[in-house]
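User: structure tokens for this one?
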Amino acid sequence: MNWRVASSINGGQQYTAAAREAYAEIAQTLADDASQLSGRSTAWSAAALQLGHYRVSGICQLVGSSMDSASAADFGADHESLPYQALIERCNDNAAQCQSLSQDLSTMADLLIRAHSLYSQAEHATRSAMNKLLETAGTVFPVTAAAGFLSLAAGGVLSCSIRERRFSPAGALSSTAWAQEGLLNAASNHVNAKTMGLSTVGAGVNRSAAILSLGSSRLVNLVQGNLLHVDQVKSSRPVVGESHSVAQSLANLQHLGAQRRGNAGGSGLDYGTIAIQRYRNADGTVSWLVTIPGTDGESDSAFGWPQNLEVMSSDAGQRMRGDSARLVAIAMEKAGIGPKDAVALIGHSQGGIVAAAIASDMKNRYRIEHVVTAGSPVANHPVPNRTWMTSIEMEDEIVAALDGATNPANEHWLTIRGTALRDAKGAPPPAGTGEPKLPGAAPVHRAAPAPIAPVNPFASTPVEGAGERKEITHHLRYHQAAYRNASDLGSPAVQQHEQHFQAIVGGKLEETSYWQGRMSWGPPTALNERIAARIAGQQAAPDNGR
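Assistant:
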């Protein structure tokens, strides 16, 4: 495992001002103590250097400058030298211990801040302000903004390629991560203004998606047709197993995605396939879990690349006319999900966008209790407040930034943002250890240094199956690592969302069904027309849950 993920948490459970202040005070105390210990480590290292200087120069501090040479000679006749080597080693050991304690306390302070999201409000406000600034700059000075963005991307590619010792375009995503949301909004302003007039400036990325999908959907319909066939298919072996947690559901999502990409054959499942599971609760009620993988890009698939624009549209009818959204809606209808049954949806990439669209636009048809998205741009979807949202995003994956906005931060919307870090290998010993190297000093043979302490297991989480080189972090394994790290931090907000999700899938699994969608030419089916009419009726119905 060559990569790790460190997570930050925004939204979810809110603290009172007094509780937040108390946690912040503890974190500050830990940080202050860490700083003091670091200063003491520096002092011990300086003492070791000074002793090394005395040993090499032959200076004895017991001989004062006022003593004449004859007296100094008489004094030195029976004077024994100080045990410099032992003193230097003791100083270095003390420096190493102080530095180690300082690092531990600093890590504890950082973990406390991350676990309790102590500065999340300030970070959210700063991120929003930066997005607005970049949007304004990109709207007013588009050429300059584009040139700056391309320069950042080129610098990232060059820097990453040098580190990787091969061409690495993934470096462009890391170097531009902080600017992606704001500049995407700026680009959407130009699209909106040129197609719908200046009054649409500021309408956002989803409005641009609505405009662009008007043309792209017609083109896709010409290529693959608009008739969607949704059929139940069988798996020759278990793929999506029983799940009672977000982590297990993410693992099932990864397994199903691998089948449809052809990376784990033998199940009989193919692309354009989702899973629907029925759970029987202790009180006799039924709940459901819908698992929706991301884009597969096949020519006759409902989860192609152009369908992303449709389900990101600002128009509810357009979202639900998207092929991927229709597939999930029809499958849910055929599976027998009732209007009073509790439903949880989990999706990666386009699958997460579809899940948010279903929660937003079929809220009067289904009781959508919880949605989990991984790497999905869903900040602008009008998800009702009664639906809990758990969004997992990577800092530099760009896909999650395509909505051009930060996710809402409230009790029911939790965002976990992961940052990919290279695993430390062959790190040098801590500062302050080792023999001082002075001119003319004789080499000293010392025992081998102690093994480097392992990485703090709570600070970051290893990415299962990650390669040695830098790669695009949109792969689901990075989101899985981000969620594990957020859970390991002991965040109350994460625990609260986890418990809410578990309450939905806490029953006994009765059935797992798989539903496959294929596009072709032909007239719309009766079921398609019925679902379209129901969605149209929901658009006119009032929403009392938001």
